[in-house]
Each structure stands twice: as C-alpha cells, then as structure tokens.
Amino acid sequence: MSSERKFFVGGNWKMNGDKKSIDEIVQWMKKGPIDPNAEVVVAPPAPYLQYSREHLPSNVHVAAQNCYKEKEGAFTGEISPLMIKDLGGSWVITGHSERRHILGESDTFVAEKTKFALDNGLGVIPCVGEKLEEREAGQTMEVINRQMKALADLIKDWTHVVIAYEPVWAIGTGKTASPEQAQEVHQQLRQWISSTISPDVAKKIRIIYGGSVKGSNAAELAKKPDIDGFLVGGASLKPEFLEIVNARK
C-alpha cells in the first residue's frame, strides 16, 4: 500500500456479543500491542455502542454497523448518524453485503445513507463486492462499478470514506480471495476512481479488503500495493484480531 495512506483495520462484530464477551475483547485489546501506525475501528451491535466506547482503549474507534438516511422520525428500528455520534461512535459501515442481500438494500439507498452520515460528521465504510455467480460470469467490475457509481453520484468529499471490497462469496465461507485476486480488484477499483472521480481521490482513498480475513493470511494480503487494510468479521471477536491489526510490517 502507499505510505501516504494510513493502514486501516475495521472489526465488524455483526450480531454477536454481550457485555461479558465485550469485557473479554476489551481485556486483550488493552493488552495489545496495537500498531500505532494503524487506524483501528470496531463495530459492535447498536445496543452496545456506548458500552463499547466507554470500555475500549482510546486508540480504538467505534463504528455502527448501519444507519438511516434521516436524522429522526417515524422509522421504527432504525438509528441515525446523530445518535451514533451521541453514543461516542465516529464511524458507520454502510452497504454490507448482508444488508444488501438479506435485507434488500439497493445501491441508491446505500449511497443516500452514506452521504447523510458523511454530511453529519461520521466517517463511513461503504462496502462493495460481487456474488459468486457474478464473479463466475466475469461481472466482478461491472457490479462494483455500479455500486460505486451510486456513491459517486452523491458524494462530493471523499476525505472521510474508506471503501471496503468484500467479495460476497468469501464472507463467512472460509474462502478468501487470493492476495493476487484481491489486489487485482483493488487496483481496478482505484483506476475507476481515478478516471471517474479524480486521480487525487484515487491516490488518497483507502480501499480495504474483507472476506474471511484471518491472522494467517493478513500479512500476505497487506503486502499488496492497493490493499490498505481490512474489514474483519469473525476473527475480530478473537485475540487473533491483533495479528491482523499488526499485519503490515
């Protein structure tokens, strides 16, 4: 990765955890070590945002796993970026494949939420990625470019955006894109950003990889020039998360 792009590791806890298990995570995170040159963010389930922020070390930021595109109102079950900030969160993940494919969120809806969260002072980690049948049909970049275009239509300032490339076929399946496969997509995505948004944004924006990242494969992936970090699922609940955080030597 480029030395001007700070290594970024996010831990997506998904629908896991309670106060007791968060206390255990806090314990090993406080013990560390955490590479001072890495930006580390964890995303607990919404009910535990404040609890996590109060207990985690100060060098670990807290993200929500999702938000809505309005600040308040009759949207039962949703949370707004302002609530996330009020609880001590500074980031939000949008468009995770589980939300796109299980809950049917459209590219446009994901983009609207991303823009609203940015406008209200959160950093945002929008996720893009293709399903297995799309990869096998040679449609990987077509899908990703479509998801990115929806974002690019609404976002003017990319300073607080970290893009996560998550091949859907590699999430929670134990399958990982090889470092070469991941690098190829990251490189093509950066080229798309350069030609569609601007060369300056392409140079500065961090593109992180998600999809069965583990302690055992993180260092190899981190060596690739266009991979600027990771969005980690299951492994972020275990001490091996620290190996991933410290993967860039």
Name a few traits of the molecule.
about 40% helix, 11 helices, 8 strands, alpha/beta, 8-stranded parallel barrel, about 250 residues
Walkthrough of the structure:
The chain is of the alpha/beta class and 249 residues long. It is built from eleven helices and eight strands. Strands 1-2-3-4-5-6-7-8 form an eight-stranded parallel β-barrel, surrounded by five helices. Helix 5 packs across helix 7. The model has no long low-confidence stretch (mean pLDDT 96).
Total strands: the figure is 8
Mean pLDDT: 96
Low-confidence stretches: none
> Largest sheet, order of strands side by side?
1-2-3-4-5-6-7-8
Query: How far apart are the termini?
Result: 11 Å
Q: What is the string of SSEs from the N terminus onward?
A: EHEHEHEHHEHHEHHEHEH
Structural class: alpha/beta
Put simply, the count of helices is: 11
Range of strand content: 15-25%
What summary fits the major beta sheet? 8 strands, parallel, barrel
Helix content: 40-55%
* Rg calculated over all Cα atoms: 17 Å
At a glance:
Helices cover 41% and strands 16% of the residues.
Write the layout of secondary structure elements.
Elements: E1 7-12, H1 19-31, E2 38-43, H2 49-55, E3 60-64, H3 81-86, E4 91-94, H4 97-101, H5 107-119, E5 123-128, H6 132-136, H7 140-154, E6 162-165, H8 179-196, H9 199-204, E7 206-210, H10 215-222, E8 229-232, H11 241-245
Parallel strand pairs: 1-2, 1-8, 2-3, 3-4, 4-5, 5-6, 6-7, 7-8
